[in-house]
């Protein structure tokens, strides 16, 4: 009887470990974005996968200063965006789309910088065992551009 309980417990641990590992081998999940200039948390984003294509939505803005609120309002909009995103609330906005797995990276999509309204190509790479995500936005060649490292929250 004790052996059966031990085996059941061990199998449960292995299953839980496998589930935890599977959760960190994809960019899908909740992330805290870290500003590449100030190194301060800027937002919480949710990356989801639909039919092999990843997209991200801004869930919450963080560390907004009184100056930020005075300039952009309590609920900032994407004033510099074009098209359907023009003057839409930043919170709830899909700002990354069309990303798909490419080897050990995710690429092929676009990412919007709500500050300037510009859209960039994007590459994602999991680092630190899937606890961090290197997000690289660029125009033209991937060697040019800028990167942020986001921290997994779930």
From TrEMBL:
Residues 29-152 form the DUF2147 domain. This is DUF2147 domain-containing protein. It comes from Rhodanobacter denitrificans. Keywords: Signal. It comes from the Bacteria. Pfam families: DUF2147 (PF09917). Residues 1-22 form the signal peptide. The keyword Signal applies. The keyword NAD does not apply. Coiled coil: none annotated. InterPro entries: DUF2147.
């Amino acid at each position: 009887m004790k052996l059966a309980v031990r085996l059941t417990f061990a199998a449960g641990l292995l299953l839980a470990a496998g589930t935890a590992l599977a959760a960190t081998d994809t960019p899908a999940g909740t992330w805290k974005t870290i500003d590449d200039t100030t190194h301060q948390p800027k937002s919480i984003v949710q990356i989801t996968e639909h039919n092999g294509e990843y997209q991200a939505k801004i869930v919450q803005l963080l560390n907004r200063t009184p100056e930020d609120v005075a300039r952009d309002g309590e609920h900032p909009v994407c004033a510099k965006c074009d098209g359907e995103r023009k003057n839409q609330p930043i919170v709830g906005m899909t700002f990354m789309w069309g990303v798909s797995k490419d080897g050990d990276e995710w690429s092929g999509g676009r990412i919007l910088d709500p500050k300037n309204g510009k859209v960039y190509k994007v590459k994602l790479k999991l680092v630190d065992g899937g606890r961090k995500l290197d997000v690289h936005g660029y125009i033209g060649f991937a060697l040019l551009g800028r990167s942020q490292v986001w921290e997994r929250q779930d």
